[in-house]
Design goal:
Order of helices and strands: HHEEEEEEEE
Strand order of the largest sheet: 1-2-3-4-5
Helix content: 25-40%
Largest sheet: 5 strands, antiparallel
Structural class: alpha+beta
Radius of gyration: 32 Å
Length: 192
């Protein structure tokens, strides 16, 4: 004789999920998906901000590296400011507008006698006039040594330090609102 299962026994033996179980599973899945999307969104924003910050710091470092290398090679008599013939060994020059001080001219010779005449110019970027670039020109060769520069905060001047003339270089870059600034005091090579 066969006994028919009761209602309770029949429910336990059924395979599948109830509607309540499916709703709970969907709610948990939705919470996980929304949380994952928020996490990915924050990671994308943080990555962009870190990229902009790193790019601004690198631009400041590139400008400092190039100008430092040339000024150290030139010595105090090989550096001239703007459209004047005043050299680094002279008196302090004050400018009202930073673009008036460019070009920065640096002349030096290698040990073998090879002459280098270098000119640095700050100008609006051709594709975006709100950004400024610093160009280094030597002969027919021009390279961009800095981008995203803030023109009124990318300036140089002569200062006295321990009785010698020093080139003071302030460089500021702004990449997508992330600003990096650095001041360099460059001691030219002595004449001896």
């Amino acid at each position: 004789m066969r006994v028919l299962p009761s209602g309770k026994q029949r429910k336990r033996s059924q395979l599948g999920f109830t509607l309540v179980e499916l709703m709970i599973a969907m709610a948990i899945s939705a919470i996980l998906v929304v949380g994952s999307l928020e996490l990915v969104s924050h990671m994308v924003i943080a990555t962009a901000q870190n990229r902009a910050n790193t790019m601004a710091m690198l631009q400041v470092q590139y400008v400092g590296f190039w100008i430092t290398e040339d000024v150290v090679q030139a010595g105090p008599d090989g550096v001239s400011f703007g459209n004047t013939n005043d050299t680094l060994a002279g008196a302090q020059i004050g400018y009202q507008y930073p673009l008036d001080i460019y070009p920065l001219n640096i002349d030096w010779k290698e040990w073998g006698g090879v002459a280098h005449q270098i000119e640095y110019n700050l100008a609006p970027a051709p594709e975006d006039s709100s950004n400024y670039i610093l160009r280094r020109t030597e002969g027919n060769s021009t390279v961009i040594v800095g981008e995203y520069l803030v023109p009124d905060r990318t300036v140089y001047s002569k200062v006295e330090s321990n009785g010698t003339a020093v080139l003071k270089l302030d460089v500021t870059a702004n990449v997508d609102g992330k600003v990096a600034t650095r001041t360099y005091e460059i001691n030219p090579r002595s004449k001896s």
